[in-house]
Write a structure and sequence with these properties.
Blueprint lengths: L2 H15 L8 E7 L4 E9 L8 H25 L9 H7 L2 H13 L5 E2 L3 E9 L7 H4 L23 E5 L13 E2 L5 E3 L6 H7 L3 E3 L8 H4 L3 E5 L11 E2 L2 H7 L3 H8 L3 E4 L4
Helix pairs in contact: 2-3
Protein backbone atom coordinates (compact mmCIF):
# COMPACT_ATOMS: atom_id res chain seq x y z
CA UNK A 1 0.00 0.00 0.00
CA UNK A 2 1.46 3.38 -1.05
CA UNK A 3 2.01 6.14 1.49
CA UNK A 4 -0.79 8.33 0.06
CA UNK A 5 -3.25 5.42 0.07
CA UNK A 6 -2.27 4.60 3.66
CA UNK A 7 -2.90 8.14 4.91
CA UNK A 8 -6.20 8.31 2.98
CA UNK A 9 -7.32 5.11 4.71
CA UNK A 10 -6.35 6.47 8.14
CA UNK A 11 -8.27 9.71 7.47
CA UNK A 12 -11.38 7.80 6.40
CA UNK A 13 -11.29 5.60 9.51
CA UNK A 14 -10.92 8.65 11.73
CA UNK A 15 -13.90 10.33 10.06
CA UNK A 16 -16.32 7.42 10.51
CA UNK A 17 -15.10 5.95 13.81
CA UNK A 18 -13.28 8.46 16.01
CA UNK A 19 -15.13 11.51 17.39
CA UNK A 20 -13.25 14.60 16.25
CA UNK A 21 -12.04 17.25 18.69
CA UNK A 22 -14.23 20.31 18.39
CA UNK A 23 -17.26 18.50 17.01
CA UNK A 24 -20.25 20.79 16.40
CA UNK A 25 -22.96 21.18 18.97
CA UNK A 26 -25.16 19.09 16.69
CA UNK A 27 -24.29 16.64 13.93
CA UNK A 28 -27.12 14.27 13.07
CA UNK A 29 -27.93 12.23 10.00
CA UNK A 30 -30.93 10.18 8.90
CA UNK A 31 -31.12 7.62 6.11
CA UNK A 32 -34.55 7.55 4.47
CA UNK A 33 -34.93 4.59 2.10
CA UNK A 34 -38.57 5.39 1.40
CA UNK A 35 -37.71 8.80 -0.07
CA UNK A 36 -34.20 7.82 -1.18
CA UNK A 37 -32.23 10.51 0.62
CA UNK A 38 -29.89 11.37 3.47
CA UNK A 39 -30.76 14.25 5.79
CA UNK A 40 -28.01 16.11 7.66
CA UNK A 41 -28.72 18.45 10.57
CA UNK A 42 -25.67 20.31 11.89
CA UNK A 43 -25.01 23.26 14.18
CA UNK A 44 -21.77 25.01 15.07
CA UNK A 45 -21.24 27.42 17.95
CA UNK A 46 -20.13 30.95 17.07
CA UNK A 47 -17.10 31.65 19.22
CA UNK A 48 -16.02 35.29 19.61
CA UNK A 49 -12.35 35.83 18.87
CA UNK A 50 -9.84 38.31 20.19
CA UNK A 51 -10.14 40.27 16.97
CA UNK A 52 -12.84 40.81 14.37
CA UNK A 53 -16.60 41.16 14.75
CA UNK A 54 -19.73 39.03 14.74
CA UNK A 55 -19.66 38.63 10.96
CA UNK A 56 -16.09 37.32 11.03
CA UNK A 57 -16.94 34.89 13.80
CA UNK A 58 -20.07 33.68 12.02
CA UNK A 59 -18.12 33.12 8.81
CA UNK A 60 -15.46 31.16 10.67
CA UNK A 61 -18.15 28.93 12.20
CA UNK A 62 -19.83 28.47 8.79
CA UNK A 63 -16.56 27.39 7.17
CA UNK A 64 -16.02 24.81 9.90
CA UNK A 65 -19.63 23.69 9.52
CA UNK A 66 -19.02 22.78 5.86
CA UNK A 67 -16.34 20.31 6.97
CA UNK A 68 -18.65 18.86 9.59
CA UNK A 69 -21.45 18.38 7.06
CA UNK A 70 -19.07 16.41 4.87
CA UNK A 71 -18.08 14.24 7.84
CA UNK A 72 -21.75 13.63 8.63
CA UNK A 73 -22.42 12.79 5.00
CA UNK A 74 -19.59 10.24 4.91
CA UNK A 75 -20.84 8.68 8.15
CA UNK A 76 -24.33 8.40 6.67
CA UNK A 77 -23.09 6.90 3.40
CA UNK A 78 -21.05 4.42 5.45
CA UNK A 79 -24.26 3.16 7.07
CA UNK A 80 -26.31 2.72 3.89
CA UNK A 81 -27.02 -0.90 2.97
CA UNK A 82 -25.99 -1.25 -0.67
CA UNK A 83 -26.57 -4.97 -1.18
CA UNK A 84 -26.73 -8.24 0.73
CA UNK A 85 -23.04 -8.11 1.63
CA UNK A 86 -21.94 -4.50 1.56
CA UNK A 87 -22.60 -1.34 3.49
CA UNK A 88 -21.25 1.95 2.26
CA UNK A 89 -18.26 1.65 4.58
CA UNK A 90 -17.20 -1.53 2.78
CA UNK A 91 -17.30 0.16 -0.61
CA UNK A 92 -15.46 3.25 0.61
CA UNK A 93 -12.69 1.15 2.12
CA UNK A 94 -12.45 -0.96 -1.02
CA UNK A 95 -12.01 2.08 -3.28
CA UNK A 96 -10.42 5.00 -1.46
CA UNK A 97 -10.86 7.31 -4.46
CA UNK A 98 -14.59 7.41 -3.66
CA UNK A 99 -13.93 9.74 -0.71
CA UNK A 100 -12.52 12.38 -3.05
CA UNK A 101 -15.35 11.86 -5.53
CA UNK A 102 -17.96 12.35 -2.80
CA UNK A 103 -16.17 15.44 -1.52
CA UNK A 104 -16.24 16.90 -5.04
CA UNK A 105 -19.91 15.93 -5.35
CA UNK A 106 -20.80 18.00 -2.29
CA UNK A 107 -18.74 20.96 -3.46
CA UNK A 108 -20.15 20.91 -6.99
CA UNK A 109 -23.75 19.76 -6.52
CA UNK A 110 -24.89 20.94 -3.11
CA UNK A 111 -25.16 24.58 -2.05
CA UNK A 112 -25.28 24.88 1.73
CA UNK A 113 -27.52 27.67 3.00
CA UNK A 114 -26.83 28.14 6.72
CA UNK A 115 -29.00 30.16 9.07
CA UNK A 116 -27.18 32.48 11.45
CA UNK A 117 -27.71 33.72 14.98
CA UNK A 118 -25.33 35.51 17.28
CA UNK A 119 -24.64 32.20 19.01
CA UNK A 120 -24.63 29.56 16.27
CA UNK A 121 -24.68 28.64 12.61
CA UNK A 122 -27.12 25.93 11.54
CA UNK A 123 -27.75 23.99 8.38
CA UNK A 124 -30.24 21.34 7.29
CA UNK A 125 -29.52 19.70 3.97
CA UNK A 126 -30.73 16.66 2.04
CA UNK A 127 -28.62 14.52 -0.24
CA UNK A 128 -30.74 12.51 -2.73
CA UNK A 129 -29.72 8.97 -3.61
CA UNK A 130 -30.73 9.39 -7.26
CA UNK A 131 -31.77 12.01 -9.78
CA UNK A 132 -29.81 14.95 -11.13
CA UNK A 133 -27.99 15.50 -7.82
CA UNK A 134 -27.88 11.86 -6.71
CA UNK A 135 -24.71 10.44 -5.19
CA UNK A 136 -25.39 6.69 -5.27
CA UNK A 137 -24.36 6.23 -8.96
CA UNK A 138 -20.95 7.64 -7.99
CA UNK A 139 -20.48 4.65 -5.69
CA UNK A 140 -22.51 1.82 -7.20
CA UNK A 141 -22.86 0.79 -10.83
CA UNK A 142 -25.77 -0.76 -12.73
CA UNK A 143 -26.24 -2.45 -16.08
CA UNK A 144 -23.39 -4.95 -16.00
CA UNK A 145 -25.59 -7.61 -17.66
CA UNK A 146 -28.66 -5.82 -19.02
CA UNK A 147 -31.71 -8.00 -19.62
CA UNK A 148 -30.29 -11.30 -18.37
CA UNK A 149 -33.63 -12.54 -17.11
CA UNK A 150 -34.24 -16.28 -16.70
CA UNK A 151 -36.32 -18.04 -19.34
CA UNK A 152 -39.48 -19.89 -18.31
CA UNK A 153 -41.90 -22.02 -20.31
CA UNK A 154 -45.08 -20.07 -20.99
CA UNK A 155 -47.78 -21.55 -18.79
CA UNK A 156 -50.66 -19.08 -18.99
CA UNK A 157 -51.73 -16.03 -20.91
CA UNK A 158 -51.12 -12.50 -19.63
CA UNK A 159 -50.71 -9.04 -21.06
CA UNK A 160 -47.54 -7.00 -20.92
CA UNK A 161 -47.02 -5.44 -17.50
CA UNK A 162 -45.96 -1.83 -16.98
CA UNK A 163 -43.99 -2.70 -13.87
CA UNK A 164 -43.80 -4.93 -10.81
CA UNK A 165 -45.10 -4.42 -7.26
CA UNK A 166 -43.94 -6.87 -4.58
CA UNK A 167 -45.67 -6.94 -1.21
CA UNK A 168 -42.99 -8.08 1.24
CA UNK A 169 -44.61 -6.93 4.47
CA UNK A 170 -44.31 -9.15 7.51
CA UNK A 171 -41.12 -10.85 6.28
CA UNK A 172 -38.59 -8.66 8.10
CA UNK A 173 -37.04 -7.51 4.83
CA UNK A 174 -34.49 -4.70 5.00
CA UNK A 175 -34.11 -2.05 2.27
CA UNK A 176 -30.96 -1.83 0.16
CA UNK A 177 -29.75 -0.02 -2.91
CA UNK A 178 -29.44 -3.27 -4.87
CA UNK A 179 -31.68 -6.08 -3.58
CA UNK A 180 -31.94 -9.38 -5.44
CA UNK A 181 -35.25 -10.99 -6.38
CA UNK A 182 -35.20 -14.78 -6.74
CA UNK A 183 -37.71 -17.46 -7.65
CA UNK A 184 -38.26 -20.58 -5.54
CA UNK A 185 -35.43 -22.38 -7.34
CA UNK A 186 -33.07 -19.51 -6.52
CA UNK A 187 -32.93 -18.30 -10.11
CA UNK A 188 -32.13 -14.59 -10.16
CA UNK A 189 -35.25 -12.91 -11.53
CA UNK A 190 -34.25 -9.26 -11.11
CA UNK A 191 -31.13 -7.35 -10.04
CA UNK A 192 -29.33 -4.06 -10.55
CA UNK A 193 -27.12 -5.64 -13.22
CA UNK A 194 -30.17 -6.18 -15.44
CA UNK A 195 -31.27 -2.53 -15.73
CA UNK A 196 -30.16 0.44 -17.78
CA UNK A 197 -27.60 2.69 -16.03
CA UNK A 198 -29.53 5.84 -16.98
CA UNK A 199 -32.62 4.58 -15.18
CA UNK A 200 -30.56 3.55 -12.17
CA UNK A 201 -29.27 7.12 -12.03
CA UNK A 202 -32.83 8.40 -12.38
CA UNK A 203 -34.49 6.45 -9.56
CA UNK A 204 -32.49 3.37 -8.62
CA UNK A 205 -33.16 -0.32 -9.02
CA UNK A 206 -36.33 -0.36 -6.89
CA UNK A 207 -38.55 2.06 -5.02
CA UNK A 208 -39.46 1.28 -1.41
CA UNK A 209 -42.67 2.19 0.36
CA UNK A 210 -44.70 1.16 3.39
CA UNK A 211 -47.93 2.25 1.66
CA UNK A 212 -49.80 -0.84 0.37
CA UNK A 213 -51.37 1.36 -2.33
CA UNK A 214 -47.98 2.98 -3.23
CA UNK A 215 -49.65 6.32 -3.99
CA UNK A 216 -46.42 8.29 -4.34
CA UNK A 217 -44.83 5.76 -6.69
CA UNK A 218 -47.61 4.94 -9.13
CA UNK A 219 -45.98 6.77 -12.00
CA UNK A 220 -42.99 4.48 -11.63
CA UNK A 221 -44.88 1.24 -12.29
CA UNK A 222 -47.57 2.55 -14.64
CA UNK A 223 -51.23 1.63 -14.98
CA UNK A 224 -50.87 -2.14 -15.25
CA UNK A 225 -48.17 -3.45 -12.94
CA UNK A 226 -48.02 -7.08 -11.90
CA UNK A 227 -48.71 -7.36 -8.18
CA UNK A 228 -47.24 -10.30 -6.30
CA UNK A 229 -46.71 -11.35 -2.69
CA UNK A 230 -43.21 -12.26 -1.59
CA UNK A 231 -42.63 -15.69 -0.10
CA UNK A 232 -41.03 -16.44 3.24
CA UNK A 233 -37.51 -17.73 2.73
CA UNK A 234 -35.28 -17.85 5.78
CA UNK A 235 -32.28 -18.92 3.69
CA UNK A 236 -32.09 -15.53 1.95
CA UNK A 237 -30.14 -12.52 3.12
CA UNK A 238 -32.49 -10.00 4.73
CA UNK A 239 -32.27 -7.58 1.81
CA UNK A 240 -33.35 -10.13 -0.81
CA UNK A 241 -36.76 -11.44 -1.81
CA UNK A 242 -38.33 -14.62 -3.16
CA UNK A 243 -41.35 -14.75 -5.45
CA UNK A 244 -43.07 -17.90 -6.70
CA UNK A 245 -41.96 -19.73 -9.83
CA UNK A 246 -45.42 -19.16 -11.29
CA UNK A 247 -45.27 -15.41 -10.69
CA UNK A 248 -41.79 -15.23 -12.19
CA UNK A 249 -42.82 -17.15 -15.31
CA UNK A 250 -45.91 -14.98 -15.86
CA UNK A 251 -43.90 -11.81 -15.30
CA UNK A 252 -41.19 -12.62 -17.83
CA UNK A 253 -43.25 -13.94 -20.75
CA UNK A 254 -43.13 -10.83 -22.93
CA UNK A 255 -40.45 -8.46 -24.12
CA UNK A 256 -42.52 -5.38 -23.29
CA UNK A 257 -42.56 -6.34 -19.62
CA UNK A 258 -38.84 -7.07 -19.66
CA UNK A 259 -38.21 -3.64 -21.17
CA UNK A 260 -40.09 -2.03 -18.31
CA UNK A 261 -38.07 -4.03 -15.80
CA UNK A 262 -34.87 -2.86 -17.50
CA UNK A 263 -36.09 0.64 -16.68
CA UNK A 264 -36.28 -0.13 -12.96
CA UNK A 265 -40.07 -0.05 -12.79
CA UNK A 266 -40.25 -2.07 -9.58
CA UNK A 267 -41.70 -1.24 -6.16
CA UNK A 268 -41.19 -3.23 -2.96
CA UNK A 269 -43.64 -2.73 -0.11
CA UNK A 270 -41.99 -3.33 3.27
CA UNK A 271 -42.67 -2.45 6.88
CA UNK A 272 -39.23 -1.14 7.74
CA UNK A 273 -38.79 1.44 10.50
Amino acid sequence: MGLLRFFTLILFLIMIIVPAIGNPDVLEFRIDYYHSLISINAEKEVKPGKYGNIFDWQLNAALKLEDEVFKGFIKAVSNIRFDAWNYGRDLLLEDLTLNEKLFNYIKEKILLQPSYTDNSVKVEVEFPFFGENGFVPIIYKAGMDIGRFPVYPVTEFSTDFTGLVIDARGLNRKPAIAPKIFDEEHNLVYFVDFIYPEYFKKWGEVGYTDDPYYHDLRDRVGDNPMRVVALKNEKLMETDITISNRDASILLQYEGTKENLKQGRVIIIIDYK
